Amino acid sequence: MTDRLEIEHLLRELHAARMSGQLDRLCALFAVDATFRIAGASDKPVAVTARGSAEIRAWLAIMLKTFKLSRYQLLSLVIEGERAAVHWQVDIHSKITGVAVPTELMDLVEVSGGRVTSYREFFAPC
Questions:
Q1: Strands across the sheet containing 46-51
Q2: How far apart are CA 56 and CA 33, in angstroms?
């Protein structure tokens, strides 16, 4: 069982790796058989589903190559057992169009053995 402080540290590390765009650091936080889902509302709805480290790495690489995050703000963090909900906000900059969009996100995360086993993210522009 992973304790609350370990889960909080893992989630903060996850966000730090994502903000800094470090793919290897980010991928190391996921279990080999983890699931990864993203659903969002923007000009065009976004839906991503990946299972296992190879698929997750591929999607994270695309995300890091396409978007840069800035102005990170953690709004709330709730941890119950090995599950967590993280409410946060960032500006998402498209490296393709140059447009930056303030965005609110909610992550639902499950952890086991010090690694993320399930990651579901929902987002919408502010």
A1: 46-51, 30-40, 115-125, 100-112, 83-94, 67-80
A2: 10
Q: How many CB atoms lie within 10 A of CB 30?
A: 22
**pLDDT, tens digit, 9 for 90 and up, residues 23-62:** 999 999 999 999 999 999 877 788 999 999 999 999 999 9
Alpha carbons 14 and 105: distance in angstroms, whole number: 14
Tokens 């522009």 correspond to what residue?
125
Spatial contact of 96 and 82, defined as CB atoms under 8 Å apart: no
Residue 17, classed as helix, strand or coil, is helix
For 114, other C-beta atoms within 10 Å of its C-beta total 12
